Amino acid sequence: MLNAECKNWVHHFRRKWIALYFAQITALSLAIALILICVCAILFSVDFKIWQLLPSFVAVFIGFIIFKPTWKITVNEAAKYLNANFLQLEESSSLCLKPEDELTILEKLQLQKITQHLPIRGALDKAWRKFWLCVLAFVVTLVGAYLIKNFYGHEIIAERYHISKNSDLAKKETILPQISNFQINIIPPNYTHKATRSQKTFAIKAEWGADVKWNISTNIAVQKLRLVFNDKAFLSFTKVNDLKWKLSKTITQSGFYQVEIDGKRSDLYQIEVVPDLPVQIKITKPKIQTTIDVGQIPKVDLSVNLVDDYGIKDAYISATLSSGKGEGVSFTEEKLNFTVNFAGKKNIVLSKLLDLTKLGMKPGDELYFFVHATDNHNQSSRSEVYMVSIVDTTELMSMAGMTNGVDLVPEYFRSQRQIIIDTEKLLKEQVTVTEEEFKNRANNLGMDQKLLRLRYGKFLGEESETEIGGEEHSEGDGHDHGETKFGDVQALMDEYAHKHDIAEDATFFEPELKTQLKLVLNEMWSAELRLRTYKPQEALPFEYKALRLLKDLQQKSRAYVAKTTIKAIQLKPEKRLSGELDKITNSTQKATFDQKDEETELKTVLAILEKRKINNRFEYGEKEFLQAAEAKLISAAAKQPGSFLPALKSLRKLSIAKNVSRKDIETVQSAIDRLLGFETSKPNLEQSAPNQKLAQRYFNYLKN
Amino acid sequence: MEFKYYIIIACILLGLFLFFKEISRQNKGQLIFRLLATLTMVLGFALLILPVSYNEKIEEPIGELNLVTQGVNSDTIAKISSQKFTLDSSVLKANSRSQINFIPDLVYHLQEHPSIKKINIFGYGLGDEELAALKNHQVAFHPADVPEGIISASWPKKINATSPLRLQGIYNNSSNKNIWLKLYGMGFTQDSMLVKANTNVNFSLKAQPKQIGKAVYEIIALHKNDTLANEAIPFEVNLKQQLKVLILASFPDFEYKFLKKWMYENQYEVIFRSQISKNNYSVDYLNTSTTNVNQINSSLLKKQDILIIDEDEFNALTASESVLINAAVADGLGLLIRITNAKASGLTQKFKRAETLQTTSKTTQLKDVTGEVEFNELPFEQTLFLTTSVDEQPIFRTTAGKTIVNSSINGLGKILTSTLTSTYQWQLSGKDADYAKFWSVLLNKAARKINAEQSFEILPAMLAVNDGGRLIVNSVSNQIPSLKFNNIKLAPRQNMEISYQWDARFWPSQPGWNSMTINKSDVNVFVYQNSDWEQLKNANKLNLTSNFVKKQDAIADQEEKVINTISKEVSKWWFLLLFLFSLTYLWYEQRFLSGI
């Protein structure tokens, strides 16, 4: 009986102990996982997410379970632990675990003695203490992580992302000695959805329109504190208290600035503006010009990719439909919306199926459209204009343009048209005629098409049937290359060989015309194939296309000049052909190109700097040249601080300092070189050897 | 009087006195013998004092001198069995273990050791002046490997504004590394080139210097981040010179209009005359003062550097005018004739031309004959071409090889002919650089050359600090030129054969740019550091020494033995013996023979 009570208590103790242990490692794992994530975030400068906590927690927890397997603790071990820790048990707690009938008298007595002390108060105190410590550790890390995320992390990340690109500038920043502390807060405009950031460097990289706030603490009381922008604009700080000053400005322009304390100016600091770009529109489908031939579905699949740096507000398709011909052209404009919620997304892929018949397009009409997009700063942009046209079959079949003017190869055109008419007729009668008859007629049409194709082939110089059409064999594939590849024996031989009788060159067409003719043949070939395989319905589009191309070809060989009205000046017949020249006098114009040669000035500065590399000082009058160069560099740096500001800094250093580094000189030199830009060559007078009497005499002898 | 004459006189006197004594002696029995003995005795005495020498011819092996110079490797040194010498203290330092003796002055050393007949040179060899001292010696050269690095380099020391700086040379890369050669100047790399491992490469680097005046670029050999060589490239850029151009046009066309504008904006002095009607002209004076150009006269032509004229106007010139122009060209004026007619007539007949049929090509691609200048194509087809005769030089051709611009010489001047009529198309299509290139080449070729007041040359080409430099001046007059180097007056020496050539020696002590004044005009002289261009200098030495040896080989005595004439002195002991013997006889005769 005694035994059971005691035994229960030990078992109970063990269970509680293990449960507490699990609670401990859970808290501890959470703390360690949090620390790990923070360290990773700082080291690799990533913004950590809360879900990342779970895997790291699991990893640490499993680690604990594996390396400190407290859960494996047996009852005996628990008993041993109790023996070691509590004197009251007199090293006898293991007796509880023994079956009662195995106990000796003495053991029973001992058991009885110790059972009096049970349950021991505060047996789990140690474990509890550990647990609370772990919980405390977790709370501390939690608070720490929160602080890091909101303060330290922000700066780190801000520095990494925004200053690192001009980190060499930031590194070298020299600050006026009066400044004890400063902070610059950059508040990007609302539409960018970017958070406010603060930095401890003067070089600024800010979004267009961002508010920049300078907070400067000085170590002594100063009279006047102001900023000098681009060496010309001044902006004074307002005093917060004796040692604290502040100023804010909206940045819309790149350039550079200096801090001026009581007339003493600091180093030059760069301002770089990140402009807000309009939405980039990329139309992936369709092609810039699409023609819908007979038989094709009058639908166009439009697919657009829009990208913006801060967010897209809206986009629509502006479509213009032109219908009619000549004088009677009418335009209708329509705005088609995408049925998408943009919601300020930065990147979006849109697609829309343009149903041309719904838009009211008829054959012969043309549709012009472009995509218009607005970003969340209301900057709009538009794509190029795309065109879709539907081929007008009636126009193709008409005789207009062939009945008048030069008729180049009219019968062939009629033939192609005839084939189309016949094919359509055959299709209409398909129901009434027998299948054999149908096949026969289709085959006959195919034969006609072939004959026609052969006739056209002759224009290309094709003489045999085999050469024709099937394969695409256009200009510029394979053999007509201007540049020869290494080891191309044929090309090498061609250079020396005298070749003639190349079928392709034997005709009198221009190469452009020939390529189009080849395309026609290609279409004819496709049509013939369908006709011969008894599929006149499928052949029809190809026939139409061949006809269309042929028509284009015909139009190309014509030039058309519209009639205009002329207003001729009235002639004075009495003055004509009189041969009198007395009213004609000599005329003289005089001009002097009077521009200060700024280039020469900069060029001289280059030479001065080159000399400075060797000498230790500038000579009299050279500083004026340097000042002129400085003025140029200032205006260049105001526009492009990234590339000219370091040079300007170096130049200022050069004009003040006694010992200058070669690197500074070279920075200025390369900047001036860039300012001078590309130079075109100019003619010069060449010098010849001195004109000695001896040489002169030789020359005269040679001449005579 | 010399000492020996005293002795001879004293001995003759002594002899005469003794002879007298012998003859005057009572006992004359042995007189002849005694006289003879006296003579030999006096002779012996005299010869005891006076040395007697004779000449002897002996055959002996020649003396050799092993001279170790820079670039020699230790294996080669170890192989030399006999004594080694060097002129270079750096060699001494580098090979301190192998016993090498130092010769401070080769000429002195050779004088001191006349037995040295043959000199073995190991390593890169010797310079010009040291080799001159070995002229009378047999020289054998054991060259070291060609040094690794830039072994040859050349670039113009002075270039005109806007023309590029071209640096050419040879890089010997015998290592297993790829090496980048970079031309560095004005703070950035102007041009670069890769030299592959184990190659000997002719390199050519180009830069477009923008400064006016002096500059020192650098050529840098880099392997990854290792700088293998860094040498100075000093050069100067001249100020742009103003050209004076006279254009005579039969009628103003676009080509003239654009050319005029281009020259005007580049501040050249241009007079443009175009005919309105007979003897009536429209004249533009650009950047210049007005003068009467209705009549062409010699003073007008003398002032101009180049005359541009079209064919029609050239043929319409009066006889006197064309004679004047011809004379002016012979005197240096440049003449550029624009050939526009397919049929030759009049004065321009001598410029042969050919017209081709229009083809389908719609462009003309131009090519410089030297291949240095490249152009974008012109958007029209050129059909009129020139044929180049024997005394003409083509300047521009189409890529098909048909000549467009020809050049010929007339006296001091040049006559250029061009059939290209629409170069302004380049400007219209925004290819201003091509337009400028084309006209620059044309005008540079044609324009009058200005005569320099003097020319000068400095030797050696890469003058180093504390090395003796030699300045050679060619002046126009025969007057003594006044020469100053860094404000120190130099003493010129006139060339014995060429009266206008003078030279002077000077010793630069400062590296970098030094100033030299030649007859009031200042020129700049760049003085290198002693360590600059070391590999190039070594390669030069290698060439010099092997050339020298080749020349010597032809004349050198190849015998291993030489016959020497040596004067030998007769030993004084012989005369002492003779002297004593005579004395003994005289004493013995008196004592034992005469007493009887």
Automatic annotation (TrEMBL), chain A:
Protein name (database record): DUF4175 family protein
Q: Give the organism the record lists.
A: Pedobacter cryotolerans
Kindly list the residue ranges recorded as spanning the membrane: 21-44, 50-67, 131-148
Disordered as annotated region, ranges: 464-485
Keywords, comma-separated and alphabetical: Membrane, Transmembrane, Transmembrane helix
Segments of skewed composition (Basic and acidic residues): 470-485
TrEMBL record, chain B:
Question: SUPFAM superfamilies given for it?
Answer: Class I glutamine amidotransferase-like
Bilayer-crossing residues are 6-24, 31-54
Query: Which InterPro entries does the UniProt record give?
Result: Class_I_gatase-like
Q: What is this protein called?
A: Aerotolerance regulator N-terminal domain-containing protein
Question: Is Transmembrane helix one of the keywords?
Answer: yes
Organism ancestry: Bacteria, Pseudomonadati, Bacteroidota, Sphingobacteriia, Sphingobacteriales
**Keywords in alphabetical order:** Membrane, Transmembrane, Transmembrane helix
> Could you tell me the superkingdom of the organism this chain comes from?
Bacteria
